[in-house]
Design a protein that fits this description.
Length: 162
């Protein structure tokens, strides 16, 4: 029970650590594969495409989350969403969204750096695995942000029906 209670209080930290551990495990597993069979070597011919795709997706979702914050700020001023604004979890809502912004910003930045230094073998491999870890963290944060947005929509719908 104490573990669940502790998780509920500090879920952002736990979920970020989970993403970090997952990305690190993928990295460690990949680095320990035989020469030429590691993840980096297998996708090396497509790195430019992969980096640009990750940068595009991460920056698009980043823009979506920033827009969502703006919309939430405006909508929570409506009387029907007063329940959200007055909730003790209202500040946490923004904490989650800002953590997602940071994770997506980090992933986008690493992807752009990967595109720039694509010819430097040693640095590129480090950036690649930083992107793997950043993407793992971002994915968990995005899932939590979408969960929050879904809950807000349902609260809004329920308030509108009542």
């Amino acid at each position: 029970m104490e573990l669940i209670s502790n998780y509920k209080k500090h879920f952002i930290i736990y979920e970020t650590i989970a993403g970090l551990i997952f990305g690190s495990l993928i990295t460690i597993w990949s680095i320990n594969q035989p020469d030429g069979m590691d993840l980096y070597s297998l996708i090396k011919p497509s790195l430019q495409t992969i980096y640009s795709t990750i940068a595009t997706i991460a920056s698009s979702v980043l823009g979506f989350i920033i827009t969502a914050i703006t919309i939430i700020l405006g909508l929570t001023q409506l009387p029907s969403l007063k329940i959200i604004r007055e909730s003790k979890y209202y500040p946490m809502l923004y904490s989650v969204l800002f953590c997602t912004i940071k994770a997506l910003g980090m992933t986008t930045l690493f992807s752009i750096i990967g595109l720039i230094i694509n010819n430097n073998q040693a640095l590129n491999q480090d950036i690649f695995y930083a992107i793997v870890i950043g993407s793992s963290i971002s994915t968990i944060q995005i899932a939590r942000s979408f969960w929050i947005l879904e809950k807000i929509v349902y609260i809004g719908i329920r308030q509108k029906i009542n």
